[in-house]
Design a protein that fits this description.
Layout (H helix, E strand, L loop, with lengths): L1 E5 L9 E4 L9 E11 L1 H8 L12 E2 L4 E8 L11 E4 L12 E5 L3 E3 L6 H5 L2 H14 L7 E4 L5 H12 L3 E6 L4 H7 L3 E4 L12 E6 L3 H9 L1 E9 L6 H6 L4 H10 L1 H9 L3 E4 L6 H12 L7 E6 L3 H9 L6 E5 L2
Helix pairs in contact: 3-4
């Protein structure tokens, strides 16, 4: 099969279109013929080596964390899917590889594609929606009447986060550029701040929750807008010791991560707020719940551009530019 691979960590190197063996589904896996994949900032970060200590992948590596496609074979112990099912998934770490024609995925990480959206739209959902679900529903237990600040509301995570927060009954504040005000308002944002001309720290106060996706300076400011007992959940770092323990890192890595997050944890403690790092986990059951919200019209996919398989490197460059509104899709089939 054809797949885009990398042979080393590099910001500059382009993905190489190569011929690799077609995967075979193991007993608990489904083999998916990929229709569409989406590109995430995580792909660019992995490519440049940002996560090489936390996620030591072997080369050659096929990137890609989102897939929508059709099941073409199932392992002997698979019970939830059959050949011909249209599905979407976020494969587990160390099992990624959706920048290809086929991928084998554990059935526990797969869900049936919502019937009311296209394959391209379905490919835009898994990683970002699972990130938001795990932040708001699992970690924060976001409740009706609470105030949540979502950074970068017009991005891939932001567009889904606004919609899910509104569904859960929260009041939503977000940052974006003036060009995207109408988009984020249409998704449900109540307070919209132009990050180019306004400082959110002077506008927002006593918030219950912050979803941080930006740099450390923005995170520090975000801690200060929380009410006592409020929570900051960061998907862009720094990683904390709970995360190191969760993924079973060796003691020296736990020590290094403790050092990395020491400053922000001290600040959080001083302000009497909670800081935690979220590294999203693949989860087919949660993805099924998200699929129901999509079918009910509660959550709508936001797709910026669709590129062809041959334009993979152009698509990667576009995502890295930070200009995308919602998600960027590569149509494989």
């Amino acid at each position: 099969m054809q797949a885009y691979t990398i042979n080393r960590y590099s910001k500059e190197d382009k993905l190489q279109l190569t011929e690799v063996p077609k995967p075979v589904a193991k007993e608990n896996e489904v083999l998916i013929q990929i229709h569409s994949a989406s590109i995430n900032q995580l792909d660019a970060k992995l490519k440049s080596g940002e996560f090489k200590l936390l996620l030591p992948y072997k080369f050659p590596l096929i990137l890609g964390h989102d897939v929508a496609g059709t099941v073409i074979s199932v392992g002997s112990k698979v019970s939830r899917f059959k050949m011909g099912d249209e599905v979407f998934a976020r494969p587990a770490d160390f099992r990624i590889g959706t920048f290809a024609e086929y991928i084998a995925v554990n059935e526990n990480n797969v869900a049936l594609k919502p019937k009311n959206i296209s394959m391209e739209q379905a490919a835009s959902i898994p990683l970002v929606a699972l990130t938001v679900w795990q932040a708001f529903v699992e970690k924060a237990k976001l409740k009706k009447g609470q105030n949540v600040f979502i950074q970068a509301g017009s991005g891939g995570v932001g567009t889904i986060a606004i919609q899910l927060a509104k569904h859960l009954g929260a009041t939503v504040a977000t940052t974006t550029s003036a060009d995207n005000f109408e988009l984020v308002k249409s998704l449900g944002a109540d307070v919209v701040i132009d990050y180019k001309t306004q400082d959110f720290e002077t506008i927002l106060k006593d918030y219950d929750l912050v979803l941080n996706s930006q740099d450390e300076k923005t995170l520090e400011k975000s801690l200060r807008i929380l009410k006592p007992g409020g929570k900051a959940i960061s998907i862009s770092g720094p990683p904390d010791t709970a995360f190191a323990k969760e993924i079973g890192l060796p003691w020296f890595m736990k020590t290094a991560i403790s050092f990395l997050s020491n400053k922000v944890r001290k600040q959080a403690k001083k302000l009497n707020v909670d800081y935690s790092f979220l590294f999203m986990q693949a989860n087919g059951k949660q993805l099924s719940e998200i699929g129901k919200l999509i079918e009910a019209g509660v959550v709508l996919p936001v797709v910026d551009k669709v590129f062809s398989f041959e334009q993979m490197n152009e698509a990667m460059s576009y995502v890295s530019s930070g200009r995308a509104k919602g998600k960027v899709i590569v149509k494989v089939k």
